[in-house]
Design brief:
The complex is a heterotrimer of chains A (about 425), B (about 80) and C (about 375). Helix content of chain A is about 30%, strand content about 25%. Chain A has about 425 residues and is an alpha/beta fold. Chain A folds into three domains: about 190 residues, FAD/NAD(P)-binding domain (3-Layer(bba) Sandwich); about 140 residues, FAD/NAD(P)-binding domain; about 50 residues, no CATH class. In chain A, β2, α2 and β3 form a beta-alpha-beta unit. In chain A, α1 runs parallel beside α8, α3 runs parallel beside α4 and α8 runs antiparallel to α9. Chain B is mainly beta. Helices cover about 10% and strands about 35% of the residues of chain B. In chain B, about 55% of the residues are buried. By secondary structure, chain C is of the alpha/beta class. Chain C has two domains: about 160 residues, FAD/NAD(P)-binding domain; about 160 residues, D-Amino Acid Oxidase, subunit A, domain 2 (D-Amino Acid Oxidase, Chain A, domain 2), CATH 3.30.9.10. In chain C, about 30% of the residues lie in helices and about 30% in strands. Chain C starts with a strand and ends with a helix. In chain C, about 55% of the residues are buried. The chains are: A alpha/beta (about 425), B mainly beta (about 80), C alpha/beta (about 375). Chains in contact: A-B, A-C, B-C. The interface between A and B is large, with 42 and 39 residues. β22 of chain A pairs antiparallel with β16 of chain C.
Chain lengths: ~425, ~80, ~375
């Protein structure tokens, strides 16, 4: 393991993988950091039962086996000083020095509060997909997938592949918006193929537009859900509800480093120039953290960022043209799956918003300002550091800040006590 | 056929496929993950290390994210659900 | 537009909130001027440890007086009053030798305090590292959650017809204050703006002493008392950057880990070097802290006066202008006593303790 990397890449999804590979191919010594044990990010997450698509496998293999790339799994960035990051893994902590940094921190799911959303058995849509790939038991389980966006189809297909009985998919966007979207799809033939494959995998699973899960019920676990759609209300008995409303960029590290952010709908993304450079010298960003764009733009942007981080002048222009096309698709998606007002109104005064500290929406309503509400209720002060509730509150049109102070994730105290001169410190815990 | 490993969840042996997460083992054991501050039962939500709902005690170390760790044979997992 | 009040409190931190509470309870017509959230400044950054620090006699007197008054506030909902007691611990014989004097000072001020030997210390707090010499237990002391306490005091004042005005005070007159929304309020004006005091009262020096805190995940029953190293008082009264071990069990099971003091810094960004020093100091005495998970860390700016005692009373050379500020790290502890002292002076009553050591006149001189 090197003490200093020419290029340090944070995140090993498609953007991080191509960034690391591009930089290494250009001669740089690269460190590739990810919080997960295996590379791939969310979209190429390792599946304990099924192997990844060939292209993904090739991409991961080429990067991980590259002689100039050090793979640093299960590693989280918790702090920063100029030119170096404080990282922690389950066994140790260290400072990683870098010449240039590529932020490929991806996105998380937007999970919106509704009555019953805290019941065991209710997960995110991408959440259920991730859990299933990690071996979560789904065989024979009755699963309903709901929320919004193309991720619902992928989540339903994964659940089914893992043996679930997918009862239905409920998409909040209405049929008209979806039709407008599909009519424009011819511009992205690969996407048409992707959608067709997913639909084929989901043969026999009803797909309903304009439908919203309004409540989940059960005692200590999910038993039943209520769905409101064009044909009225109905109740469905099920074991798992997977519900997600699209993605939000993981901007916390960028924010801590002082990178300028910009609005992406209700959320924030990192502002970059044509070379994926952020507003901070030597810090680049690529993929979902620069705005939700999907795998294709992540792959392209990662390559641009990796090259730019090594100071390359060539090879970037053609990638920039491809990026524009990929990003245009993302804009279409955003418009089609824009969250309906009905969804924003699901949370009731007694619905929990902050799941770490058990704070209801009503408790927040008693306060005029966000800071006062946070101090009085502790909303956002738990271990998720507001990643769930602040993201949701932003979608609900309420002000919520980004937590961007060290520790960026909950970290061992001994990690925070590590000085740059200390080298690697093994944890006493293991 | 994938190999299986055995982990102990709340004293009960549970088989999971090699490479599965601790979260999967807890779910297979039929256990809740944790009780919330007000006593609600909670389980994994995001599956990707963001929400911290799946915190459990692993080999005596509390507050570990079950979805971020791969189950190892003989691992002792305790939940407060 | 002009309104008249008996008392206009500028600043709704714990000090302003307590003053508004006491003044409104006396039947005074009170206005509270605050541009931000209630208790969101240094009040929210502190530990909320209610403690009698025995460094300076007048500091001890005000703390002891206040601790008695806190007993009437302990049931305020959400304020999380928790009587965990304070356990001062001594590292070695040298520190142990200071204990008789400390006990004498605390007892003379009316506190219940007892010496504990090394074995008792271990029994009280098994997580403390072995080999510590002994300590002092002050069982009646407590911890609170300051921002909610401040909010409850303001709410209580408002129920007694106090008016909360969301604005910033920009200029003082004689018995008058002008707000940034154009309003001019008439009456006695109390400046309780802590670290921002000099914006309105440039003649009263305030030094900011930056401090860091860190809070952990929940580890119920790991610690039982607020633990303070005997060396804390030296750190608090020193003149250079320092750290001291000061760890608090919250009623939630979380641990608050402190403390640091930095001079000549006016930002509240986290300094990793200072955080490291603070944590390493805590690890010396509580080695098991190393493995715990930190949820958040933050920094705040303690407003210190020129001599370690707060400014409480009438501001010399000004008419109808009062001050209650400069409490450094003891604002939460001494808020109720400060409020009582201030309102007694306002009403020309004889205060329960000697008010002269806190007279802001000393700083203007």
């Amino acid at each position: 393991m090197a003490e200093r990397y020419d290029v340090l890449v944070i995140g090993s999804g498609p953007a991080g993988l191509t960034a690391a590979h591009a930089a290494a191919r250009h001669g740089a010594r690269v460190g590739l950091v990810d919080a997960q044990a295996l590379p791939g990010g969310q979209v190429w997450r390792h599946d304990v039962r099924f192997s990844a698509p060939a292209f993904a496998r090739r991409c991961m293999q080429a990067t991980l086996e590259h002689i100039k790339i050090d793979w640093l799994p299960q590693t989280r960035v918790v702090g920063a000083e100029p030119g170096r990051l404080l990282v922690e893994d389950p066994r140790s902590a260290r400072w990683l020095k870098y010449g240039a940094l590529v932020l490929a921190t991806g996105a998380r799911e937007v999970l919106l509060p509704f009555p019953g959303w805290t019941l065991p058995g209710v997960t995110g849509a991408g959440g259920l997909q991730a859990l299933a790939k990690q071996g979560w038991p789904l065989a024979g389980k009755r699963v309903v997938v709901a929320g919004s966006g193309p991720l619902l189809l992928a989540a339903a297909a994964t659940a089914r592949r893992h043996g679930a009985r997918v009862l239905a998919v409920f998409e909040q966007a209405d049929r008209a918006a979806m039709l407008r979207f599909t009519r424009g799809l011819w511009r992205w033939p690969a996407r048409v193929m992707q959608a067709a494959v997913l639909r084929a995998q989901l043969a026999g699973v009803p797909y309903h537009f304009g439908s919203v899960v309004t409540a989940a019920q059960g005692e200590d676990a999910l038993r039943e859900i209520e769905v409101s759609g064009p044909r009225g209300q109905r109740r469905i008995a099920c074991d798992q509800l997977a519900v997600g409303f699209g993605l939000a960029p993981n901007v916390e590290l960028a924010c801590m480093l002082g990178c300028q952010l910009e609005a992406e709908g209700a959320q924030q993304r990192v502002r970059v120039d044509a070379r994926q450079h952020t507003s901070v010298p030597g810090v680049y960003a690529a993929g979902e953290v620069c705005g939700i764009g999907g795998r294709d733009s992540a792959l392209i942007e990662g390559a641009i960022a990796g090259l730019a981080a090594t100071g390359a002048r060539t090879g970037i222009a053609s990638l920039q043209r491809r990026r524009a096309q990929a990003r245009a698709f993302a804009r279409q998606l955003r418009e089609t799956f824009a969250i309906d007002q009905r969804v924003r109104a699901l949370a009731q005064p007694d619905t929990l918003v902050c799941r770490c500290e058990d704070v209801t929406l009503g408790a927040l309503d008693a306060h005029v300002d966000a800071r006062g509400a946070k101090l009085a209720t502790r909303c956002g002060m738990g271990p998720c550091q507001g990643r769930i509730c602040a993201t949701a509150l932003a979608e609900l049109g309420r002000a919520a800040g980004i937590a961007a102070r060290p520790p960026l994730f909950p970290a061992r105290l001994e990690t925070l006590a590590l000085a740059p001169a200390d080298g690697i410190a093994a944890s006493l815990a293991t | 056929m994938s190999t299986c490993i055995c982990v102990i969840v709340n004293g009960k042996p549970v088989e999971v496929v090699a490479g599965a997460s601790v979260a999967a083992a807890v779910a297979r054991a039929g256990s809740r993950f944790r009780r919330s501050r007000s006593g609600e039962a909670r389980a994994a939500l995001c599956g990707m290390g963001v929400c911290f709902e799946c915190r459990v005690e692993i080999d005596g170390v509390p507050q570990q994210q079950a979805c971020m760790l791969i189950a190892r044979a003989g691992m002792q997992v305790r939940t407060d659900g | 537009m002009t309104h008249s009040y008996d008392l206009i409190v500028v600043g709704a931190g714990i000090i302003g909130a307590a003053c508004a509470d006491v003044a409104s309870a006396e039947g005074l017509k009170v206005a509270i001027v605050e541009s931000g959230a209630i208790g969101a400044g240094v009040t929210a950054a502190g530990m909320g440890h209610l403690v009698a620090v025995d460094g300076l006699p007048a500091e001890l007197a005000l703390a002891r007086y206040s601790l008695g008054l806190w007993e009437d506030l302990r049931d305020l909902p959400g304020g999380e009053f928790s009587r965990c007691g304070t356990l001062w611990f001594a590292r070695d014989e040298h520190e142990l030798a200071r204990i008789p004097d400390k006990l004498a000072r605390l007892r003379a001020a009316g506190a219940v305090a007892e010496a504990v030997d090394a074995a008792q210390l271990r029994e009280l707090e098994p997580a403390l590292s072995p080999g510590l010499a002994g300590g002092v237990l002050v069982p009646d002391e407590a911890v609170v959650y300051p921002p909610v306490m401040a909010r409850r005091l303001v709410e209580r004042a408002c129920r007694r017809r106090a008016t909360l005005i969301h604005a910033r005070a920009i200029a003082l007159g004689e018995h008058a204050v002008t707000l940034d929304d154009g309003q001019r309020l008439l009456g006695n004006v109390l400046i309780a703006t802590g670290g921002a005091l000099q914006a309105l009262l440039p003649e009263l020096l305030i030094h900011l002493r930056k401090g860091h805190l860190l809070i952990t995940e929940r580890y119920p029953n790991m610690l039982h008392h607020q633990l303070v190293h005997m060396g804390y008082t030296d750190s608090a009264h020193g003149q250079s950057d320092s750290v001291a071990c000061n760890v608090q069990p919250r009623p939630t099971g979380q641990l608050l880990v402190g403390s640091s003091r930095e001079y000549g810094v006016s930002d509240s960004e986290i300094s990793l070097p200072m955080l490291r020093r603070m944590l390493r100091c805590a690890f010396q005495f509580l080695p098991s802290l190393r493995q715990l998970k930190a949820l958040r860390a933050w920094a705040g700016l303690r407003p210190a006066s020129i001599d370690g005692l707060p400014y409480i009373g009438r501001v010399a050379q000004r008419r109808g202008i009062w001050v209650a500020a400069g409490h450094e790290g003891l604002g939460v502890t001494t808020a109720p006593g400060t409020a009582r002292l201030l309102v007694d002076q306002l009403l020309a009553r004889t205060p329960a303790i000697d008010a002269r050591p806190y007279d802001p006149m000393r700083a203007a001189a």
